[in-house]
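Tutorial, part two.
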Amino acid sequence: MRSKELEDAVASWPRISVHSHRFGGREFRFANAEVGHVHYGGIVDIPFPRSVRDALLKEGLAEEHRWVPNSGWVTFRVQSDRD
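Running the prediction step on this input gives:
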């Protein structure tokens, strides 16, 4: 799935708005809260509660966020439509 297709899919969710992200790419917000963002090239960053983040990392389903590794944020690398 290309970044634009991902953006369009998430933008279709109720009460989600799409904005430019300060570090490039597109940011998704629910009201004023950021619920994730996608960078060009298929890098998707999403915040989760710490317990969910830890489970995703343990299962190898996500990576630690590059800039805030000790937070709830994780990074997914979208490489195919299945991802």
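The helical segments are 3-11, 50-58. In part three we will examine how such features are distributed along the chain.
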